[in-house]
Write a structure and sequence with these properties.
The protein has about 130 residues and is mainly alpha-helical. The protein is built from four helices and no strands.
């Protein structure tokens, strides 16, 4: 073999490493660790969901009455520390809204009256007829 071939073979061996075998106990312990890790991550997601849920009436107001896009709502949420992707904002909104629509529309009416002059002054079209 040439020096180049030996060099290529040694690189392949280093990349692949030694074949490692796992016992049934190790496999079971790995599954348990994976589940525990996943379950520990869930509360953070639930916390973000809960926070989003508490803001839902205001988000509804921004979306339906002020005319904000999900992208701009996502930016506003990030500005206050709730770092969710656009897709999560859309999903959370569409999942939560049907169960809380009356609460959101009632709150939006109050907010529309409270912020009507600010909204119109800043150029947002307010949709009071929806």
């Amino acid at each position: 073999m040439t020096e180049i071939e030996n060099s290529k073979r040694s690189k392949v061996k280093k990349i692949r490493g030694k074949l490692q075998r796992f016992s049934a106990d190790q496999l079971s312990a790995g599954r348990e660790l994976l589940l525990q890790t996943a379950l520990r991550m869930k509360p953070n997601d639930q916390t973000q969901r809960r926070i989003f849920s508490s803001y839902l009436p205001e988000i509804y107001f921004l979306k339906e009455k002020v005319g904000c896009t999900f992208k701009s709502i996502t930016k506003y949420l990030k500005d206050i520390g709730l770092n969710l992707p656009d897709s999560s904002v859309r999903v959370y909104y569409s999942e939560m809204l049907p169960m809380r629509l009356q609460e959101c529309t009632d709150r939006a009416e109050v907010l529309a009256e409270q912020y009507k002059s600010d909204i119109e002054k800043n150029g947002f079209p307010i949709h009071l007829d929806q």
